[in-house]
Amino acid sequence: MDESARPFRKIIHVDMDAFYASVEQRDNPDLRGKPLAVGGGGPRGVVAAASYEARPFGVRSAMPGARARKLCPDLIFVPPRFEVYRAVSQQIRTIFERFTDIVQPLSLDEAYLDVTRNKPGIVSATYIAEEIRRMIREETGLTASAGVSYNKLIAKLASDQNKPDGICVVTPERGADFIAAMPVARIHGIGPVTARRMEELGIRTGADLRAHELSFLQARFGKAAHFYYGAARGEDHRPVEERQVRKSISVEDTFERDLYTPDDLSAALAPIITRLWQRIEKAQMFGRTLTLKVKFNDFTIITRSQSLPDPVTSETVLESAGQALLAVQCPVAKGVRLLGLGVHNFQASDRKEDKPRPAPPEQRQLTLAL
């Protein structure tokens, strides 16, 4: 197909503002205007979401509840009500579907929409985004932020620019400059470990990344280099895919120094379990099989899996099973430089994983009025 004949894409990324916490404040007026955390405030609890009043104190999602209380002594903890969040999420999904059936949920509180061809036949994607935000506010009492652009990468970054209750539009003419000013650590698809490696190479912004040839990036980042090279130029050709089912959820960490002792390894796995559980809860995907990944200092990798009788539906079960998988590998003969833990074999799921894929070579981005 002639590239010039390709239809223009108009992508919206909608992200609810402090979703869980906002639902709780909506339903309980006594919580409005107060620092609030959804989750557990005890020694083993985790913050699933924090209200905007709590964030200036440094309270963030995935943070241990005990630490959150130290940062904000007046913090109010409320237990999560996932059945309510799921119901509200479905309300929001029906609003999306008034405009398009091409909806890719990332979790209960965010989704991509392709409105290139939309049901009402509206030309302006910006107008659609504003209508969606208005309907969400009127029908749920909640606010959402939106990013509007010509691809998924920039739409997602844009939705975070004017939070809360804001919108950001990035046209193709502005795409490369928008990415150029972005810290690489914020670019979706560049994780914390890769961002640190880039910083060691003097790559701190999208502009720094764009200054390097593809061969330079390939030598240092392998297959992912194609995505980084395109991203630095505002390119991302991944479609919005509403039907692909997510197959796994995982978290891994690379350590600054090699770990050897069982105590050090167990301590390193604990925050991985915390972050994994937060992702599981957010996606509402509960699997029966856990997989432990261990990379040694000679770069050899082993994986060990265990299937449980029932899906993992609590952090306590996840922690027990994950630490047991690790304990079987101890003591280790070589230093460990990376640990990872994942869950799959889901009981039921209609969620979608959104991993960046390399862009096809020489595909052009065309001018688009958003």
From TrEMBL:
One of its GO terms (molecular function) is magnesium ion binding. Residues 349-370 are annotated as: Disordered. Keywords: Cytoplasm, DNA damage, DNA repair, DNA replication, DNA-binding, DNA-directed DNA polymerase, Magnesium, Metal-binding, Mutator protein, Nucleotidyltransferase, Transferase. It catalyses: DNA(n) + a 2'-deoxyribonucleoside 5'-triphosphate = DNA(n+1) + diphosphate. The record marks 20 as: Substrate discrimination. It is found in: Cytoplasm. It comes from the Bacteria. It is an enzyme of class 2 (transferase). The active site is at residue 110. Mg(2+) binds at residues 15, 109. Gene3D superfamilies: 3.30.70.270, 3.40.1170.60, 5' to 3' exonuclease, C-terminal subdomain, DNA polymerase, Y-family, little finger domain. Its cofactor is Mg(2+). GO terms for cellular component: cytosol. Its EC number is 2.7.7.7. Belongs to the DNA polymerase type-Y family. Poorly processive, error-prone DNA polymerase involved in untargeted mutagenesis. Copies undamaged DNA at stalled replication forks, which arise in vivo from mismatched or misaligned primer ends. These misaligned primers can be extended by PolIV. Exhibits no 3'-5' exonuclease (proofreading) activity. May be involved in translesional synthesis, in conjunction with the beta clamp from PolIII. NCBIfam families: PRK02406.1 (NF002677). Monomer. This is DNA polymerase IV. It comes from Sphingobium subterraneum.
